[in-house]
Amino acid sequence: MFVFQMADIMPALPEIFLATVGLVLVLVAAYGGETPVNARRVTRLAMGGIAITLLLVLNSEQMVTSGFGGLFSADSFAGFMKILVCLGTFAALAMSVRSEGDDDINKPEYSLLVLLALVGMMLMISADNLMALYMGIELQSLPLYVVAAMRTNSLRSSEAGLKYFLLGALSSGLLLYGASLVYGVAGTTDFDGIALALAGQELPPVFIIGMVFMICGLAFKVSAAPFHMWTPDVYEGSPTIVTALFAIAPKVASIALLMRLTYGAFGGIADQWQQVLVAMSVASMVIGALGAIMQTDIKRMMAYSSIAHMGYATAGLAAGTLAGATGVMIYMTGYVFMGAGTFAIILLMRREEAEATRIADLKGLSRTHPMLAVGLLVMMFSMAGIPPLAGFFGKWYVFLAAVEAGLVPLAVIGVVTSVIGAFYYLRIIRLMYFDDTDTPLDPGIPVANRMVLGVSLAVILLFFAGLRSLLGAADTAAVALIMAR
Amino acid sequence: MIANWPLLTIVTFLPLIGVTFLLMIRGDEDVVARNARNVALWVSGFTFVISLALVLNFDPNALGYQFEERAEWLPGTGISYHLGVDGVSLPFILLSTLLSPLAILASWKAITHRVREYMIAFLVLETMMIGMFASLDMLMFYLFFEGVLIPMFIIIGVWGGKRRVYAAFKFFLYTLLGSVLMLVCMLAMYIDAGTTDIPMLTAHSFAASMQTWLFLGFLASFAVKVPMWPVHTWLPDAHVEAPTAGSMILAGVLLKMGGYGFIRFSLPMFPLASEFFAPLIFALSVIAVIYTSLVALAQSDMKKLIAYSSVAHMGFVTIGIFTMTEQGVAGAMFQMISHGLVSAALFFCVGVVYDRLHTREISAYGGVAAVMPRYAVYFMFMMLASVGLPGTSGFVGEMLVLVGAWKASSWVAFFAATGLVLGAAYMLWLYRRVMFGKIVSAEVEGMERISRREVVIFAPLTVLVLWFGVYPASLLDVMAGSVQSILDSVAAGGAFVIAGR
Lengths: 485, 501
What we know:
Low-confidence stretches of chain B: none
Strand content of chain A: under 5%
Distance between the termini of chain A: 26 Å
Radius of gyration of chain B: 22 Å
Radius of gyration of chain A: 21 Å
Largest sheet of chain A: 2 strands, antiparallel
Helix content of chain B: over 70%
Distance between the termini of chain B: 49 Å
Number of helices of chain B: 21
Structural class of chain A: mainly alpha
Number of domains of chain A: 1
Structural class of chain B: mainly alpha
Number of strands of chain B: 2
Helix content of chain A: over 70%
Strand content of chain B: under 5%
Oligomer: heterodimer
Low-confidence stretches of chain A: none
Shape of chain B: globular
């Protein structure tokens, strides 16, 4: 019989705290009523909870990083990634606060669900065991299925929710099946144990099948090609604020989990999974770049853009080295801020109180909303990987790792697709700056969007200045990740 | 005392301080426009004055880099903030700081909408250009090299002509595709040498097989920038659609980034591959010189004609660089500086009449010399400098390149000289059609004479072209030491690797 000890609690304190906040908020939501006022109250409390959690994560310098008998690992890698997901979720929640109240998002359960999903993401990041892995994924996914379908009077939103759920369930199935095969071969669910069991052993084919199934299941969550099909539909159909959340936080958590699995449990057999990740990376970069060109809806375009970004991140992952892990972390840091900043603007794409998310709706933005246009300009150039912005440094480090690991063709394909990708980012700049409009978007920028955009802009423009400390933190985290095995 | 200041950092980032001023301007559109013009002009002018301190304190006889500044950026990774100039980069920095205020002055009346944004783009562009030439760290070089694309894309796209969107996209994507291939090579170099420090990379010898790939990757980037045939097609589009000042900077400075790259990276770092690929470069350059000269003959648009002539002139530059002789490389350098001055002036010549008649069609003009006599003189002088008349800077560069080319291969020299003849043909023909003959229309007759502002732009360019033509040693002496040390490292690098085998 497994018995809890205080030593188990401390590493997981942020998660435990956040889960408690979630439970309290259930009561607030239930007794406060289905009013916009209560919804805002719940959102504010949730944001407060996340802020405190963030502080707890930042201050979790402790000797013991492993808890619950090795199920849970709160090493510096987990800390790094948790900061990113907390920031991303915080930004998404902050921007969801609206004063007008006829929206389905303006229900108290929205923030509650997002909060629970965040607990799931943090569990994913800390998962050091197949069981914890699955629990984290499901805790993250189930609330997200619901929020995707949050707009109950919209067919698109319901469709998005259903699609997300079905494909998500399928991927969970793949993952479980793979996990069972891996367990069958390794005889343990513990990541360190799996790595130990595999060391120096002739790998049976059934293990390889299990491993590939697991990677595929996670690829669904990351939305890496060829498991990306749900992404454009879900991005387009979900309420924009939900899309913003999807685009930022869960991606980070899923990439982190993929890193834990490949670098941790399968760390000794990098040559076995490297080709799988290389194929995924190439497919994602190509499909992301080509798919986005034809899109007319900016949310769909962002979906393809995120597929491409996941391709770049996987390129660093595929290297299977310390430099690769560092590169992915730097890439994801830039990605979170680019995503948050871009969606801070996309959320404001409204005309006469209705969402106007066609790309063409951005026409003439530099005339009507000069500050937003400058913001989006920087975001787009950064996403295209043009120096000296954040996106460039992310690409520099992931491709550095890829070239170092001898994956030169992958790097070449990567940079060429980034040129194709630049085309559609430039198209947005063209609409904003080169074209004119006579139907401007609604004026006014809420404080939350202003703050998120401002912080993101500052981070992206001054990325080069903070690179030194970021690189240090990412290096430490990467060492922790790899030493864990 | 002044020598202890971080002069290069100041010169590089001063324009960005101007940008913050521009952002602070408040008021209605007219006030903002007027203030933005003044701020931009003063800041870029001041930058030029400070950059003169570089010239005054530069010691042409000293070996190595001067005004070096090094600060930690990413400690332990071999990447640092490292600036410095030698005889190769200093002239380009001066060219950038000189042309920037002139270009801003050239757009004084031509740009009437979104003046503030325009000036911001120009000042950012200036920082990028100077920073690129001053960087002694490969990563920093790349940041500036590609950062240039952002303001230039905006300048062409917002203030350009009818097909500006097409031209801006073509410019951006063409250049980007070349640059990213170079980026992969830079990664490989960084991994091989463990540093991005340019002096250390120059000292590092790369394996012969690796050099081949690295050379090709860098060629992809620099060939587009120069531009070399057959990847030159973005240039005429970009030039035709860009506003006058954009063309001045594009032809004056941005094209030189490719030539500078060849001299700074390709030659000293990949000497074996440079030797191996020199015939290829010669072939492409000779085709560029002859083919684009013929194409220039057939143009009906003035700007396009001058754009094609730029490609031809840059063909001379690449020939000169890859002769790997002292005369050739120095001639290429000289030709780049000269072309920077002359082509900027020629594009401004087109801009002057375009501002008045709003067309660049050659057939719309005729007899302009009778209406605008002073302008005709300036135009003639610059046209002759472009043709390479002795006594102008154009002559010195071409002459030296031909001498170098003759040493390398008499055929290359022969074909390149053919280009000179064709060059004279299209320029003189252009001049005859625009300037002489009857005054073709009432509009032409009604054109105003050139203003004082326009003279202020022409004057320094004219003086410099003449000065360098009459007294080329003033520029050659600055470059000589650095050119020699680059050629030495080419020879040493080649010998070392061969000995190593």
